[in-house]
Amino acid sequence: MAYPATLDDLDATRGSASDTLANPDHSTHHSNEDAIIEALQTKVGADSSAVTSSHDYKLGSVADGDKASSLTGTETLTNKTLSSPTINTPSGLVKGDVGLGNVDNVADANQTALGTVTTGNADAIVTNSSKIAKGKVELATTAEIDTGTDSTRAIPVDQYVASDRNVRYVDWRVLDKGTAQLVITNVAGDFEFPFTGTVVSIGAYVDTAGTTGTATYDVNLAGTTIMTTNKITIDTGEKSSRTAATAPALTTTAITAGDILTADVDAIHTTPASGLVIRIGVRQT
Dihedral (C-alpha) 184, 185, 188, 192: value to the nearest 10 degrees? Predict the structure, then answer.
């Protein structure tokens, strides 16, 4: 028997009506037929066959009136669940088929918080925000915050902290307004600084201007000056260091809440000024 590898030819053992049972051998013919029938049964399988190679097992889920799908043919499948499928270049598949019916494939440049822009650039389409209308918001830089004239940009916290808008000024009264100045170290005792930050400016002013010469003042943190040799100076006849010929230059700018400051009067006018206030500008952190 050659089946199921190939089809058997039974004519060779069947003989003709004039042949005797012995030639060809009749029992051999029946044996071949029996073997082929058993092979067919194995191939087809019994009802509800558990033999995975049988046709009954392979076609057991095909309902009456349906036909099996081919491997390479074109058929319409309905109500089928694919477990971990690999789909290569599918055609006819739309976004609603995979639960993405509300998703638009729009480039990022054309997406906005207010909705999808299908053509053009979102920046050109969405208007600027205002105090009463929604829209896109541009953030101000530190320089723009320093200028303080922009009415359309928003202020990010970090840029505000780094700007001049965050500078706090401390006026430290060192001498009463009626007290004439003398050259003296630690003229007013200890001053505890109230907050942490970076010193960005320093200066002084008096209540009554001195004349002839230049008055010089120093500020120390924990006993050490925070300036170079360019100290705070007030020129003759002036009440403020803002107009001094030489501006003070800082060497130490970091200051912490609780730091102790002291002030020195290093030089006075020939006719001394009266009163003294040290002005310190600190960008708070």
Answer: 160
Dist CA 200 CA 51 (whole Å): 90
- Rounded to whole angstroms, the Cα distance separating 61 from 63 reads 6
pLDDT in tens, 254-271: 999 999 999 999 999 999
| Omega cis (within 30) before 24 | yes
Residues 6+ apart with CB under 8 A from 274: 175, 177, 178, 179, 180, 181, 206, 207, 208
CATH topology of domain 166-284: Jelly Rolls (2.60.120)
The pair phi, psi for residue 243, each rounded to 5°, is: -100, 10
Cα distance between residue 273 and residue 263, in whole Å: 16
Contact 264, 177 (CB under 8 A): no
User: What is the pTM assigned to this prediction?
Assistant: 0.55
| Three-state secondary structure of 51-74 | CCCCHHHHCCCCCCCCCCCCCCCC
Task: Return d(Cα 63, Cα 285) in angstroms, integer.
Answer: 77
- At 282, list the tokens: 């600190």
Residue type, 116: T
Q: Where exactly are the structural domains of the chain? A: 1-58, 127-162, 166-284
Q: Which residue has the higher pLDDT, 195 or 55?
A: 195
Over residues 87-130, the pLDDT tens digits come to 777 777 787 877 777 776 666 655 555 555 555 565 666 677 77
